[in-house]
């Protein structure tokens, strides 16, 4: 009887751990794909500019736009991580709830 209970508890913990690890892997994959998506146009533009020669160079506007898009990964990568992180969402909600109640109870 005791062994069945131990196995049952172990199975529940194992299942929860697997689900947690799957969420973490999903978050990492989405964040990595976001990084690759934002930096690929810049890398392609630079490789084309480097290997085509000076007479067939990329227009400066295309290089500028791809560079700006690549550097916007500073914004997009954390936002993707925040969107997929369960722990961050829970803590963000708790902090906002705490701030709301402390503001509402202030006497000015």
Quick structural summary:
By secondary structure, the chain is an all-alpha fold.
Give the proportion of residues in helices. Answer: over 70%
Work out the radius of gyration: 24 Å
The CA-CA distance between the termini, in Å, is 62 Å
- Main β-sheet: number of strands, strand sense, barrel status? none
Helix vs. strand class: mainly alpha
Number of strands: 0
Query: Which descriptor suits the 3D outline?
Result: elongated
Helical stretch count? 4
Beta-strand portion reads under 5%
Low-confidence stretches: none
What does this structure look like?
The chain is mostly helical and 108 residues long. The chain has one domain. 87% of the residues lie in helices and 0% in strands. It contains 4 helices and no strands. The chain has helices spanning 2-52, 60-71, 73-84, 86-104. Helix 1 (2-52) packs antiparallel against helix 2 and helix 1 packs antiparallel against helix 3 (73-84).
